[in-house]
Specification:
The chain has 395 residues and is α/β, with parallel strands linked by helices. The chain folds into 3 domains: 70 residues, Orthogonal Bundle (Arc Repressor Mutant, subunit A), CATH 1.10.10; 125 residues, Nucleotidyltransferase, domain 5, CATH 3.30.420.40; 159 residues, 2-Layer Sandwich (Nucleotidyltransferase, domain 5), CATH 3.30.420. 40% of the residues lie in helices and 22% in strands. It is built from 13 helices and 16 strands. The strands form 4 sheets. The protein has a 5-stranded mixed beta sheet, with helices on both faces. Strands 14-13-12-15-16 form a 5-stranded mixed beta sheet, with helices on one face. Bound molecules: zinc ion. Zinc ion binds next to loops. Pfam families: ROK (PF00480).
């Protein structure tokens, strides 16, 4: 859980405690007030006051009766799924998807459009804004129930400033995307990188649900990682923590998009698989479904390329294990769904990490699947619901 450690005014404590109660309900619902108090080490009176406010705002609802411990059966609480809505946006390297999601991260409706390499921001903005308008018009009746817009994008993002620092496939640099969207829609906007959105989806709904701390890796066109501590993102001093794709695993002259040499993502990503395959005579473009099919049919060139890329990712994972001694590493992305790649990565991580540390880590595929990033983008908004100290908050 979040750590309840910040001293301050009564108002601030109340906001922090409200966030904690809200988190406990979405993680353990249906849950009684007494169980929440015990879990968070808060007084029953505090929990009663906070839940009363959350009930008044329709954010939570009473569900069932729990088991009695001798006295009256306690009323159980859960999130009210349709009290508010969030607009989620995932800007990937080749497409943008926009969805409306409810308070339990269920997708109500979604639309998508293709994007292409080096598309100008102006052109992409037009597409994104149109999609958001369409999604709002087609599935939200009460516009005042939209809490905000959460955006996940590939590349480097400054969450605090709401800026896309660098988006490699589009060539965008220092784009103030949050300000642009806030001006357009007049609701709060939160922007983060895609792997962090995936990590949030896993944190609340996937493999990370039972864990306070874990590492999440996304393998796609590039490779990134997110680090979760006490169920919150950790970001590093300039928001750059987790540039896992650019750790060095080789000394050679293969230049990376970051300008350096020997980066992991040139050996373990989708573009590495296709490069390895082409070195052995494969001629097609990268198409994940085709690669999967060729692998299943035993195409030796593809099988070897997948094994090799998986091996390199395993080297990177072994480095993470040796440095951080994590209890859980979650790996997501289309390549990871291919068994040959995943098995090769596990084997290589086992071989290359310290035995005792490997014994204590679980390496799991992301459980939230194809919708993980779009759902995670929505969680950026939900997680900020009680975080804003100066700004407008609900309670
Ligand atoms: Zn690099």
């Amino acid at each position: 859980m979040r750590k309840n450690v910040i001293p301050g005014s009564f108002q601030l404590m109340k906001k922090i405690n409200t966030g904690l109660v809200f988190d406990a309900i979405r993680l353990y619902a249906p849950i009684s007030r007494a169980e929440i108090a015990k879990l968070l080490n808060l007084t029953p009176a505090t929990v009663t006051n906070i839940t009363a406010e959350l009930l008044k705002r329709n954010i939570i609802m009473e569900s069932d009766f729990g088991k009695s411990n001798g006295g009256r059966r306690p009323v159980l609480l859960k999130i009210n799924p349709n009290s508010y809505y969030i607009i989620s946006v995932y800007i990937g390297p080749t497409k943008v998807r926009v969805a409306t999601i409810n308070m339990e991260s269920e997708i109500m409706c979604s639309k998508q459009e293709s994007l292409y390499s080096n598309i100008s921001f102006e052109k992409a903005k037009e597409i994104i804004v149109t999609l958001i308008r369409e999604v709002i018009d087609s599935c939200i009746v009460e516009k005042n129930k939209i809490l905000g817009i959460g955006v996940a994008i590939h590349g480097i993002v400054n969450f605090e400033k709401g800026i896309v620092v660098f988006s490699p496939n589009f060539g965008w640099k220092n784009i103030g995307l949050r300000d642009v969207l806030e001006k357009e829609f007049d609701i709060p906007v939160f922007i983060d990188r895609d792997v962090r959105a995936m990590a949030m989806a896993e944190n609340w709904y996937g493999e990370g649900r039972e864990f306070d701390d874990f590492i999440c890796i996304k393998v796609g066109y590039g490779i990134g990682a997110a680090f979760i501590k006490d169920k919150q993102q950790i970001r590093g001093v300039s928001d750059g923590l987790g540039e896992f794709g650019h750790i060095k695993i080789k000394v050679d002259d293969l230049k990376c998009i970051c300008g350096n040499y020997g980066c992991l993502e040139n050996y373990a990503s989708e573009r590495a698989v296709i490069r390895f395959a082409r070195e052995n005579g494969y001629e097609d473009e990268f198409d994940i479904e085709k690669i999967n099919l060729e692998a299943l049919n035993g195409n030796k060139v593809i099988v070897e390329a997948l094994k090799k890329a998986g091996y390199y990712l395993g080297l990177g994972v072994a480095n993470l294990i040796n440095i951080f001694n994590p209890g859980l590493i979650i790996v997501g992305g289309d390549l990871v769904d291919i068994n040959i790649y995943f098995e090769s990565l596990i084997e290589s991580a086992r071989e290359n990490s310290l035995e005792d540390l490997f014994e204590h880590v679980k390496i799991k595929r992301a459980k939230t699947g194809k919708d993980s990033i779009i759902k995670g983008a929505g969680l950026l908004v939900l997680d900020s619901l009680f975080d804003s100290i100066e700004g407008e908050v609900i309670v």
